[in-house]
Amino acid sequence: MRKLILFLTLILSLSSFGQPFGNEWIDYNQSYYKIKIVENGVYRISFQTLNNNGVPVSAINPKNFQLFVKGKEVAIYIKGEDDNSFDLNDYIEFYGEGNDGWLDTALYKGRNNQPNPYYSLINDTISYFLTWNSSVTNLRYQEENAIDFGNYFAAPYILKEKLQVYNSNYYDGKILSSKATSPEYTKAEGWMDSPIALGQRKNKTISAPNRYTGGPFVDFEIQVVGASDWKGVNNGDHHLRITFGSQLVDEIFEGYELKKINRSFSPTEIIKGNNVIGFESIDDLGAGVDRTALAYMKITYPHTLNLNSEFYYEFLLEDGTVQNAQYLEMILFNGGSNPILYDLTNHKKIRVIETLANYKMIVPNGNGIKKCVILNENEIKNITQIFPVEETGTFTNVGANISDAAFL
Fold it and tell me: Which of 62, 76, 342, 401 has the CB geometry, 3.0–4.6 Å to 94, for a possible disulfide?
């Protein structure tokens, strides 16, 4: 109940001061269809799906389609849109991500106060919204078809990000002097791992397959919170020691604080298999209780071009330093005869050539480090159901009927 009251208070406060509602992306004269997404992947909407769910697809120029999520337009690829007709074999394709804690950030008064930004307090499903307007310049993936491989040096590595999120236990956060919890969301409140108790040691593992030892430093990030506050100690009642290979982190902190820990080190210090990260509560501060909780671990490391016979792979790619693009030769990838590669950062669909030994592609430079996904076409997730918003297909403009006087 306290959280509901806080949420309603937040909405009323924004309204009374004339703040935007976050729905500025909506055109109330347009139709919108909801697409529910649970996990990351490349999704496809066929002519049949659109037609079967009430979209007048034959009357729409495919260049008019738009897709929105989190209040922002996202890039889509539409097969066959150049003829201005959405035909039977045409489709819409896009990269979708499952829900995380993005909407919870406002409740914590900023991401810096949010213990687990990768896990939603409410729902693992997020809605994307498909609509159409009269524009023919909506956001699209642009095709890149360069295959002049001989003009480039092959890149020796890509970057791989591995994220492990923990959500087995819910923590109420800071306890007030009244023995109640705060009515607001606090730094130590949310879903995290089971607690590390006083004097206890826990080991976690994170894998780093096919690490490339000649690449840039590994970036390692951990977020932990204090899950207790021993009143007899005021200058730090948590002593947490974290070990990762030869790396040692020794942290002393107080009460229900949030600690984000970042370290960079040579890729030679990680192994190709499971890397053990030790978390140990050191009993040397005089605290009778010491509980800490792990929210997530993230590692970004240089990775060879060996994809471990995967059918779907997400990775990061640096810009070439002496070339205007990166030439990749990927091996042990189950891409099939029609592999797909998207540069998600720069909205590019990259041509991939299959050979007997590898898969070849040229990815243009742009934005420093870009997020990419490569996949076998059979890994595409076909969407069969989309839902008109509010059953009518149009949003109700509630704000147009709200008078500021209602909040006075």
Answer: 76
